[in-house]
């Protein structure tokens, strides 16, 4: 089993250890550092902290390790809370390899550059306020150029293929069904004539996804690191979610004649929403109102989706045989230009706007919220998890006013939430996924990527299902892996 012990004992024993740095009793900033006995430093994910705008700046800048010392980053998927700090690592001297699935590599090619633009834009807005206060300007965390250069370090590996990093390290990616290219990192480390097996699930999808293949069995591990986002909640049925979406569209756009704002991750969630609306359009059930996907990133991502049919479920593959574009229909419009995005806010006509980001922390959706939150004709529909402290969390939990770009906006629009569109499995679905493992061979399970109450509830549930030695690390906690 793993043992928590001081660093000086580690230096004497020269035993592999893991340090939990981010997404520990919270759901952003995923990063966990493995240090092998022979001195290799491996980072599992490299995510950015989100939740309080630039208040999290120090958390992202102040790393407890030197990026130049990291040999490898093993990436579970492309969401920014798992990948978004890679350009910053590059900026500070990281020149190791970033190993991930092929689809994750392709998505990162657009998502990291987009994140760099957001860093620059948010910093520009923040510096305007600082200048008025007589304070010095701050630099963005990283730039789009940092993002582009960091892509030179990426290595794409197919699902289920064994990849030898060196003579002592090998890995295999297996599908988690969370987003395009998402995977369990199955890492094998040879030390002193034995092999230690570590599985890191990243985020776990649901048994059925409207787009993706379901989570797949993964190789047996000695140590398992796994998420607990919905460790205390069960999702409603998927069919109910689709019917609820149609209801909200009708009530907002037909009855109230207002705007429906759907903050959504540009990758995966947006394509899933479009697919559902496309089906309703084909069935003649969708109200004839314009629907806008206001995200250049989502437009580019849809093209990447078409390149990776290996990630799709059979139902979508069957549709694509007869419909060359399941992500488009008559009243759907994809928007790239900022001028077109701004024009939506000057219109009083009923419409649906799907815009990034899902937690409402960045991107064009913040402008749509600033312009539409105070109108009771409008509705904001959350379709995924919003981490504590994010703008999305404050809106969904019922705050009467919120700050956006430094200005206070009263919340008079209706606020709705449909959790069944979440890409995360609930506690039963996550535990079912872990049943692929032989419980007697698991030395330790570490729960990450979940708020404290969710992680504790999930630990109790796992114990009731026979999983033993389940730990909930705290930030900076170290464990020896023997």
Architecture blueprint of SSEs:
Blueprint: H1 7-13, E1 17-22, E2 31-35, E3 41-44, H2 57-61, E4 72-74, H3 80-83, H4 86-91, E5 97-101, H5 102-132, H6 144-150, E6 154-157, E7 163-164, E8 169-175, E9 183-191, E10 194-200, E11 223-227, H7 238-255, E12 259-263, H8 269-282, E13 291-294, H9 296-307, H10 314-322, E14 332-335, H11 338-345, E15 351-355, H12 365-372, E16 379-382, H13 391-396, E17 401-404, E18 407-410, E19 414-417, H14 427-434, E20 444-448, H15 452-464, E21 470-471, E22 478-480
Parallel strand pairs: 3-4, 4-5, 5-6, 10-11, 11-20, 12-15, 12-16, 13-14, 13-15, 16-19, 20-21
Antiparallel strand pairs: 1-2, 1-22, 2-3, 7-8, 8-9, 9-10, 17-18
Helix pairs in contact: 5-6, 5-9
């Amino acid at each position: 089993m793993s043992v928590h012990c001081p660093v000086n004992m580690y230096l004497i024993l020269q035993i592999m250890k893991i340090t939990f740095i981010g997404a520990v009793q919270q759901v952003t900033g995923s990063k966990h550092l493995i240090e092998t006995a022979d001195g290799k430093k491996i980072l599992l994910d490299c995510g950015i902290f989100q939740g309080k705008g630039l208040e999290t700046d120090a958390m992202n800048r102040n790393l407890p390790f030197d990026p130049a010392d990291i040999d490898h980053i093993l990436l579970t998927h492309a969401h920014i809370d798992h990948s978004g700090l890679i350009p910053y690592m590059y900026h500070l001297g990281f020149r190791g390899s970033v190993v991930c699935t092929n689809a994750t590599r392709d998505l990162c090619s657009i998502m990291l550059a987009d994140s760099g633009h957001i860093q620059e834009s948010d910093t520009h807005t923040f510096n305007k306020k600082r200048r008025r206060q007589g304070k010095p300007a701050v630099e963005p965390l990283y730039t789009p150029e940092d993002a582009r250069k960091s892509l030179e370090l990426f290595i794409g590996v197919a699902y289920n293929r064994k990849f030898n990093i060196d003579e002592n390290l090998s890995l295999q990616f297996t599908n988690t069904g969370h987003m395009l290219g998402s995977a369990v990192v199955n890492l094998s480390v040879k030390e002193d004539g034995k092999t230690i097996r570590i599985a890191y699930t990243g985020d776990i999808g649901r048994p059925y996804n409207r787009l993706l293949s379901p989570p797949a069995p993964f190789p047996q591990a000695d140590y398992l690191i796994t998420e607990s986002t919905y460790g205390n909640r069960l999702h409603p049925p998927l069919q109910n979610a689709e019917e609820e979406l149609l209801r909200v569209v009708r009530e907002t756009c037909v009855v109230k004649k207002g705007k429906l704002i759907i903050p959504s991750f540009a990758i995966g969630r947006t394509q899933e929403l479009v697919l559902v609306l496309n089906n309703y359009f084909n069935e003649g059930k969708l109200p004839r109102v314009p629907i806008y996907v206001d995200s250049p990133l989502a437009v580019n991502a849809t093209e990447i989706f078409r390149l990776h049919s290996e990630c799709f479920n059979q139902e979508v593959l069957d549709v694509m045989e007869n419909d060359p574009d399941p992500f488009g229909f008559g009243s759907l419009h994809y928007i790239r230009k900022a001028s077109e995005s701004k024009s939506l806010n000057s219109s009083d006509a009923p419409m649906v706007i799907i815009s990034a980001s899902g937690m409402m922390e960045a991107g064009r959706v913040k402008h749509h919220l600033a312009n539409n939150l105070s109108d009771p004709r409008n509705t904001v529909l959350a379709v995924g998890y919003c981490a504590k402290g994010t703008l999305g969390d404050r809106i969904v939990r019922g705050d009467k006013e919120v700050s956006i770009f430094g200005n206070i906006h009263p919340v008079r629009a209706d606020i709705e939430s449909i959790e069944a569109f979440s890409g995360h499995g609930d506690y039963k679905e996550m535990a079912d996924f872990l049943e692929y493992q032989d419980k007697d061979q698991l030395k330790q399970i570490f729960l990450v990527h979940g708020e404290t109450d969710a992680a504790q509830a999930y630990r109790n549930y796992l114990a009731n299902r026979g999983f033993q030695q389940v730990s909930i690390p705290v930030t900076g906690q170290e464990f020896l892996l023997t």
